[in-house]
Amino acid sequence: MKILVTGGAGFIGSNFIRLILNRRPGWDLVNLDCLTYCGNLENLKDIEKHKGYRFAHGDIADRVTVDTLLSEGFDAIVNFAAESHVDRSILDASPFIRTNIEGTLILLEGAQKYGIKKYVQVSTDEVYGSIENGSFTELSNLAPGSPYSASKASADLLALAYWNTHKTPVVITRCTNNYGPYQFPEKLIPLAISNVIEGKSIPVYGDGLNVRDWIYVEDHCNAILSVLENGKVGEIYNIAGSSEKTNLEIVHTLLELLGKKQDMMHFVADRPGHDWRYSLDDKKIRRELGWAPSYDFNRAMEMTVDWYKQNDSWWRRIKSGEYSKYYERMYHHR
Ligand code: NAD
Ligand code: TDX
């Protein structure tokens, strides 16, 4: 089995590559990543010389790059490559349109042209928008609320249109909020942990009562592997962690795990258009593919805090570079 993994130098992609090399020895993986601000080859340092792994530096939105690579012959594509941060999509949506929509289109065209047998589009719960009560199923309407989620919803629609029109063998996964090793410290959990270790307070948007469902990244990666191997083409699979928490609950848990006082947080101006609650019904993937998350939330949060404590050079390097300018711009006025 030879797989093109795109965006494999990011958070979830790098965890997925490591999982596959462990769980499916004999598979060949090529990681196509253009290394944006959050793409980091350090995330793959321990496996960079693995015989089943190769890095290809390039852009999914560049047709020649994708065409040249796919002409080698691949069985499957798993598309993680994306601009993934909601706050950045509020500051400037253009890169989201280019990578998340145009990039997906180019991969779909390539999948079609080179007879790829399975194309997995890694999507998000955010495409359904916010929900007051209950949970979205795969049949729920799309109502994205941010430029980020609108670009992901567009990509999902393109993928489904390719299945309908060309019978391109696409499968879509929609997962809730991930946490774990190698998450870029602009997202709530790694930002909060690293801030506290640095002696800084955690910025909480609005009243902190927005709700997210949290899943440990390895559980998400296992779900994607199930979908890659056994998911039905043309279908969508929701993936959830069954751990809905308010942002304040997350912050309190982290401060407790880090042994700090609960006042090491402060409220800042809310995110414009901030979705209030995400919630997914994931009965379909449990029933049809027999997947279920295996990590307990409290245990996995503990493991995550330990990882950021033990790997502080990883995030300190990121925080002291270009990223510091973004952080200043994001939080200075809040
Ligand atoms: P990330 O931002 O950490 O990583 C994205 C990776 O894509 C980076 O390595 C980056 O260099 C690469 N990339 C960006 N543009 C590219 C391009 N044009 N060509 C090639 N590579 C490019 O993101 P993540 O959190 O790992 O998310 C991965 C995927 O999972 C995304 O599609 C995201 O929408 C989806 N997702 C994320 C979450 C979450 O909680 N993080 C939840 C559900 C779904
Ligand atoms: O400093 C912060 N303070 C804060 O209160 C940050 C960065 C976030 N927040 C809030 C906003 C959200 O309600 O915490 C919640 C989580 O925020 P993010 O970590 O930015 O994630 P979210 O916006 O929920 O989106 C994430 O989950 C779905 C990923 O970034 C997406 O890529 C994924 O699709």
What does it look like?
With 334 residues, this protein is α/β, with parallel strands linked by helices. The protein folds into 2 domains: 2-178 and 214-239, Rossmann fold, CATH 3.40.50.720; 187-212 and 245-275 and 298-330, Alpha-Beta Complex (UDP-galactose 4-epimerase, domain 1), CATH 3.90.25. Helices cover 43% and strands 17% of the residues. The chain is built from 12 helices and 12 strands. A 7-stranded parallel beta sheet has the order 3-2-1-4-5-6-10, with helices on both faces. A 3-stranded mixed beta sheet has the order 7-9-11. Helix 1 links the parallel strand 1 and strand 2. Helix 1 crosses helix 7 (217-230) and helix 2 (63-70) runs parallel beside helix 4. The radius of gyration is 19 Å and the shape is globular. The mean pLDDT is 96. The chain binds nicotinamide-adenine-dinucleotide and thymidine-5'-diphospho-beta-D-xylose. Residues 84-86, 124, 126, 177, 187-188, 191, 203-205, 210, 212, 247, 271 line the site of thymidine-5'-diphospho-beta-D-xylose. Nicotinamide-adenine-dinucleotide (NAD) binds at residues 6-7, 9-13, 32-36, 38-39, 59-61, 80-82, 84, 99, 103, 122, 124, 152, 175, 177-178, 184.
Kindly summarize this structure in a few lines.
With 334 residues, the chain is an alpha/beta fold. It contains 12 helices and 12 strands.
Number of helices: 12
Which fold name corresponds to the CATH topology of the largest domain? Rossmann fold
CATH class of the largest domain equals Alpha Beta
- Please state how the strands of the largest beta sheet are arranged side by side: 3-2-1-4-5-6-10
Structural class: alpha/beta
- Uncertain runs are none
- Classified in CATH, the superfamily of the largest domain is NAD(P)-binding Rossmann-like Domain
Q: What percentage of residues falls in helices of 4 or more residues?
A: 40-55%
As a percent range, the share of strand residues is 15-25%
CATH architecture grouping of the largest domain: 3-Layer(aba) Sandwich
| Biggest sheet character | 7 strands, parallel
How many separate domains?
2
Average pLDDT reading: 96
